[in-house]
Amino acid sequence: MEKGSYCLSAMSASNLVLLFTIGVVTIVMIRIMYIVYRRSKPLNPKSPQPLSTLIVLGSGGHTAEMLNLLNVLQMERFKPRFYIAAATDNMSLQKARVYEDSLLDKAGVDAVGRAEFMQIYRSREVGQSYITSIGTTLIAIAHALWLMIKIRPKVILCNGPGTCVPLCVIAFFFKVLGIRWSSVFYVESIARVRKLSLSGLLLYKLHMVDQLFVQWPKLKEKYPRAHYVGCLM
Amino acid sequence: MGEEGGTVKEKKVVFVTVGTTCFDALVRAVDTPEVKKELFRKGYTNILIQIGRGSYIPTKSTVENGSAVLEYFTFSSSIADYLKEASLVISHAGSGSIFETLRLGKPLIVVVNEDLMDNHQSELAEELAERKHLFCARPQTLYQSIVDMDTGSLIAYQPGDAEPVAKHINRYLGFPDD
């Protein structure tokens, strides 16, 4: 008899676990659907508060494009700013520093806010095979998580380098878990004319960016949820 | 203009850049007698190559004897000055140097590196070549491209504008337009 009741309680316990799991999964699914739905809607209307902004830089052309964009954004709305570039890339942060120095000279720290510069492990080097990319991607994700917990940005601006994928994925889970609501903007590099980059494609398919901008009309035809904005350079 | 009669030629520089990576095939293609002679025939007196991390070292030449004078260096913190002084630019397909050159209004031949794993770079060069802003070549077709090149057929590139993106972002975040 004793054995039987033990069985029964074990069964009901496992039922409870099952029910609980189903409940949690359902809530998470609803939350994800809500976030994906909210993606197409603008943020709370008229928000005069400055927003902490994460800017993901990539090598060479990527950084030039991003700085072009920053030049026309009102920096007093996007502060403080956190710049992240790959650990192997020294040039990009250097260029961002020069840009920030010029801002400070022009307007002063009270107006444009402060800036921080950070490096991140890269998920994939140019030319690295896709198989070894898996291991390096895991390391990159752990490091990205650490940085994201520290920064918790409200706005993320990125334009293509692989380093932005883990950051955007984490930002998405921060939204799901209610840790931080952020708006993610992805500007596809001008170098992409006919096909999105791997980063862009992933984030587009997974619905993880709020707005994805493309610089060539062919991409808009192919990816209708993207916004065509013409060339930035 | 002053091609005959051994008169002192105006210095016209061809600047070749491979960016921060290595692109030996391009350096090798420029460092052939045919290309050097053809460039000289077209009125270019000097070739300056930025070879980057490449292992192929081109042969330096200091006197012009029917072909252009060739010099090289590895890296420079900024290639802007070289671009400004050049009469013709031969570049790898990186968007950075492409747009830097186009904005200076210099004639440009972009040479696509076919050894890159993810060769999306040809997309941009081909699109801009279709719009007649530059010439697009491969290392093995560089010579022919120089022979066929008519810099007068190029259309000046109108620099782009980041304003539309900024407008989208501001509107999305609820900031007022201004």
Automatic annotation (TrEMBL), chain A:
What is the top-level taxon of the source organism? Eukaryota
Q: Which Pfam families match?
A: Alg14
Q: Which Gene3D superfamilies match?
A: Glycogen Phosphorylase B (3.40.50.2000)
- GO biological process annotations for this chain's record? dolichol-linked oligosaccharide biosynthetic process
Keywords linked to the UniProt accession:
Endoplasmic reticulum, Membrane, Transmembrane, Transmembrane helix
Principal localisation: endoplasmic reticulum
Membrane-protein topology: Single-pass membrane protein
**Protein family (similarity comment):** Belongs to the ALG14 family.
Cite the PANTHER family for this sequence: GLYCOSYL TRANSFERASE-RELATED, UDP-N-ACETYLGLUCOSAMINE TRANSFERASE SUBUNIT ALG14 HOMOLOG
| Name of the protein in its database record | UDP-N-acetylglucosamine transferase subunit ALG14
Native organism is Nicotiana attenuata (Coyote tobacco)
UniProtKB/TrEMBL annotation, chain B:
Stored SUPFAM superfamilies:
UDP-Glycosyltransferase/glycogen phosphorylase
Q: Name one GO biological process term.
A: dolichol-linked oligosaccharide biosynthetic process
Instruction: Output the superkingdom of the source species.
Output: Eukaryota
Q: Which molecular function term from Gene Ontology is one that the record holds?
A: hexosyltransferase activity
Query: Which residues belong to any copy of the Glycosyl transferase family 28 C-terminal domain?
Result: 13-169
Cellular component GO terms, alphabetical: UDP-N-acetylglucosamine transferase complex
Gene3D superfamilies xrefs: Glycogen Phosphorylase B
Q: Which organism is it from?
A: Nicotiana attenuata
Pfam families per the record? Glyco_tran_28_C
Q: What name does this protein carry?
A: Glycosyl transferase family 28 C-terminal domain-containing protein
Entry-linked InterPro entries: Glyco_trans_28_C, UDP-GlcNAc_transferase
